[in-house]
Write the structure tokens for this entry.
Amino acid sequence: MAGDGVDGDVSAPNGVPPTSSPKRHVECARLDVSGGLAGDAAAAPSPVCAPTGQNHEDDPARVIVVCTPGLSKTMGALHPIGALWEGPVNLLRTRAQHKDFVERLEAAGATVHDVRAVLERDARRSVTARLALEDLAARCLSYELHPDAERIAAEASSDPSATRDYLYHVSSEYKALVLEKMDVAQLVEIVLTRPTVTVAPSMRDTGLTASYAFNPLANIIFCRDQQVTTRKGVVMARLRSSQRHHEVDVLEFCLRKLSLRVIGRIPAPDAFLEGGDFFPAGPDLCFIGVGPRTNMQAVSYMLENDMFGTRRVAVVRDDFERRQERMHLDTVFNLLSSDCVLMLREMMGDDSPTRRLVDEWVRDADGAPYVQRRTDVEFSLYVRENGFNIIPIDGKDQLEYGCNALNLGGGRVLSVHQKTAREIARSPYFRGDVQFMPFDAVTAMYGAVHCCSQVVQRDEAK
């Protein structure tokens, strides 16, 4: 696939010596473009890092990360299915609805950090920030020499210096020179579109001609997936779709630039974790889904490395359905308040052919290993046992993102589905406030407000 070279460098088969762009390793109080907590669960954050963490989904949301749609979305819109979207989109409406979403988050008292703005942040003022962004862009920009370049050059010219010139113009040295002259906004677009430039001899004008391919981060608007935020801090994920893998590096760069506490990263090759499968439910309990996206290898890694921070971890297994439309736990379930949840009606009960089953992992003390104490408990039964009332929603409403609401704390809920919003508001179990907001231009890309936000800090309710 275009743009899949190692760290954006050209490869030896085209006759170019392998060279690497330098990677700048710095503390989380500054910047980090290494992508590099991979496999290092014990990596200790610097004490200057800002606190991150969620105790309960119903605690007040204070810091939220989002990503405004831009050029990478325009590229994705050229072929929606290939971009992993549900259908065609109108990007003007997408931007307008996303802007309304951000304004509602801010009105609720949250500090909202946009990925694009964080990438640009301080890079026009600070040489340190500028260089870190250039280094990240260098990893996202690939130069390649056409496979037949040397033959073309040899047939057209006997001058050996011509071949040397071609090699220089696909080298890391030349790439660094190009990036140094770019504006900050250009560097950000490189990070988000991941271009590959293939050059070949032209025998006229500048002597070279170029063709361009892109591997855009067309789904980075869904900032929920690239990480989970537990009671302990932020854990960087590992996404199932190969075209989304680089999103994790970008989000980690942004979180570290904001000095937010990252406690680890899910390692390759067999573990997969996506943020839409996680819900915090207090110091005693959290939920994590295992199904089409997140797998047990990632959950085991988090359990073994004490990344959850709760006494109990409820692993919610999707053994029987595993549908794209229900890819994450947050597509069929949501925490609306301290004692009220949404749940897809048709998966409830022992007789349901699409039921979810819970394995409960428990530890007896902080730092003690987790041990599986219960297994195969039907999900709705488990939820009720733990003191939650359930508002069931129909399958048609779930497919229209009825479950994918966002709790901003204290039962203040944003919903993108009007019928579900009315059912929540009428339920005797719900004592909060629910707002409906149009979001259909975003849901066409397979996600709603929970998918489009990563809450990295909530204040623990008193």
